[in-house]
Design goal:
By secondary structure, the chain is mainly β. Helix content is 0%, strand content 30%. The protein is globular. The model has no long low-confidence stretch (mean pLDDT 95).
């Protein structure tokens, strides 16, 4: 179901059984495949592709030319920057090697699920490997290639991407070290907890 308050550019291609929440905008040349679900107050930037059965939460921003493959779940308040690409198959082939039959692009037993948790930012032109979790309020640096799950409140950069520093929910670095981060953000004053090597918000 597409709510009446949704703005859809006339060049966008929206397939059957797609759900889009109120207040969302879908810009030019976007392609959304069947059974995809998009929450309220989202922005889907131009030339973005969203595959079968993808689930996207509320207040999510996808910039231009983002590729979201099948098997991806995106929680609320996530930002995916321009040119970012998600993948879902560790051993992709075009054809079945015994029969020569072309493999379908639809999800199958090889499709791995990737979860993008609340508040994550994925930088421009980053590539996200299959079967991963990007933890809450983590950040992937632009151009990075992510091959392992990312802990919450952590910035990863490079190819392959590696942890560089810990972050506040506001996006600013916390200072200190990876193993002993500062527990108060100098930018917004948010206090953090550090337990068993995992950061969380003090208020939770």
């Amino acid at each position: 179901m597409i709510e009446s308050e949704v703005r859809i550019h006339p060049t966008a291609l929206i397939e059957e059984e797609v759900s889009i929440g109120a207040g969302s905008s879908v810009w030019d040349n976007v392609h959304i495949r069947t059974r995809a679900s998009i929450g309220s107050d989202c922005i889907i930037g131009e030339k973005t592709y969203i595959a079968y059965d993808v689930r996207i939460g509320n207040r999510v921003k996808l910039n231009a030319s983002v590729y979201i493959c099948a098997g991806v779940i995106i929680d609320d308040e996530v930002m995916i920057s321009a040119g970012a690409v998600f993948t879902n198959d560790l051993f992709p082939r075009a054809c079945h090697h015994r029969t020569g039959e072309l493999r379908s692009s639809a999800p199958d037993e090889h499709t791995l699920e990737t979860r993008v948790e609340k508040g994550v930012t994925v930088g421009a032109n980053a590539t996200i490997g299959p079967g991963l979790v990007l933890g809450r309020y983590s950040m992937v640096g632009m151009g990075s290639v992510v091959t392992r799950s990312v802990p919450p409140f952590t910035l990863v950069v490079g190819n392959p991407a590696r942890p560089l520093r810990r972050l506040c929910a506001c996006g600013h670095p916390l200072g200190g070290t990876l193993d002993a981060p500062n527990l108060a953000c100098q930018a917004c004053g948010q206090k953090m907890l550090w337990e068993n090597g995992v950061l969380s918000l003090e208020s939770e």
